[in-house]
Amino acid sequence: MFAIVLVGGFGTRLRPLTEHVPKQMLPICGVPMIEWVVGHLADHGVEKVGLAMGYRPDAFLEAYPNEHIATTPYQVAVESEPLGTAGAIRFAVEQFQLTETFLVLNGDVLTDLDVRALVEFHRDVQAEATIALQPVDDPSSFGVVTTDNRGRVEAFIEKPEKGSAPSNNINAGTYVLEPSAVEQIPQGRPVSVERETFPELAAKGTLYALPSATYWLDTGTPRQFIQANLDMLNGKRKQLPDLPDAEIDPKSLITQSVIGNGSEVEAGAVIDKSVLLDGCRIGANSEILGSVLSEDVYVGQGARLDGCVIGQGQRIQPGEVLMNESRPEAGSA
Ligand code: GTP
Predict the structure, then answer these.
(1) The whole model's pTM is what?
(2) Are residues 251 and 230 in the same domain?
(3) With a 6 A CB cut-off, is 57 part of the ligand 1 pocket?
């Protein structure tokens, strides 16, 4: 089966980490997110993926120059302007000339979903489109879905007011679609699959959904990005990481954190619940708590960062104290 992976968003909530790379090229335990997503698909019988790109397509093409992501062949469809999630699907289907049932994934979701079972369900109920559902505690920032007892979608409500959601099952960002579901997507303007296409298919009675409580995480914010790394580190996923190689002084204290390749941590530094990308230098007796540091960040001796997101190449001066701050990439405005 063919899977379209949506990777064209700007990832604004993850800035400054996404100032120079798309979200899906950020590392989860040292490996770009897209490799985990494609690896999961390959494990479930997907033979080829199509990346629906917009923002920084060059980042993918440079990282995977031989038309494969790990062992899976991939093609690309590059939008000249953002088409929204449904517009991107339509554009990709035309570019890849898809004429059979296919999968669509939000490329920023990490999940152990049984993709084969979703496709099987889609075929059994003869749906035009099927959405994977995930139960969550607070559905207010997601698309909430209610179904009848056969799984036919009755309502699709995008981001309901807190406390008003009729169900805890949310759109998990993996879909099975028939080409006919795509024909109705209007051309020539951005279209959202969540706000337009799915409500229309639900009204037509051809949209189905299947809940499954499995590992699932939307990586869209710095906090969730840290969580994605820690879940992988702590073995909460079916996939297991090879950890990056950093130079760590034995007199430092590192707990629940991922330190990128080539990074150095000096004596007395304390790092907790944080993710450091490659090439960071962490000075003696500094503290880094609940923070994400992009590549090549320097943290001076005795500095303290708590809840911060620091852009590539930044220098934090010795003794500086930052709390819940975001610093852009070095050299940017
Ligand atoms: P934010 O700006 O932080 O909201 O992130 P985002 O731009 O990634 O948006 P969002 O998280 O809502 O997107 C969900 C998925 O769809 C992500 O994998 C995006 O890369 C992708 N996506 C969003 N908009 C587009 C688009 O216009 N074209 C394509 N190809 N993909 C998109």
Answers:
(1) 0.94
(2) no
(3) no
